[in-house]
Amino acid sequence: MALLILGLVIFLGIHSIRIFANDWRTAQIARMGPNKWKMLFSVTALIGIVVIIWGYGIARAQPVWLWTPPRWAPHLAGLLTALAFILFPASHVRNGRIKAVVGHPMVLGVGLWALAHLLANGTLSAVVLFGAFLLWSVIDFAVSLRREPAAGLASANGKLMGDIIPSVVGLVLWALFAFVLHGWLIGVRPFS
User: The NnrU domain covers which part of the protein (predicted)?
Assistant: First the structure.
């Protein structure tokens, strides 16, 4: 469990700098330049995600069960993760209505992904992993809305294609991940 927590501290820590120390972040980018900052950020995030995966794999080998998820939980998790997979590409489409209305679709997508996995898993390691991501996404979403009050309150002025493309891409990636890659990479087949 210690490795999982260390990985979460590294990964969510680097992703929390803008939340808790935005002025320091801005000063560091000005001091070292945006490319060096992005490289340092990316390397740190990659180390964090590798340690999370490693730590979660070790913790899953000896699960501590807190509850047994209900039979309907994987189906609700599938729906929530499908929405999350749509929100991820929608965050990169400038003229989409989804981004205009939600404001921060990537952060909301992470929150839905984490909530889905909390519902479908009842182990202590799952609560630590997905609970940390859910807490981070709630805090980041709230701070982002406070920093940019207009975000998420805009009318749906975007173009329909700005919503169709990320929806199709997101659902195709979700299906590929849910039915093929999740079992291969994580060892759990959500719908079998």
Answer: 3-190
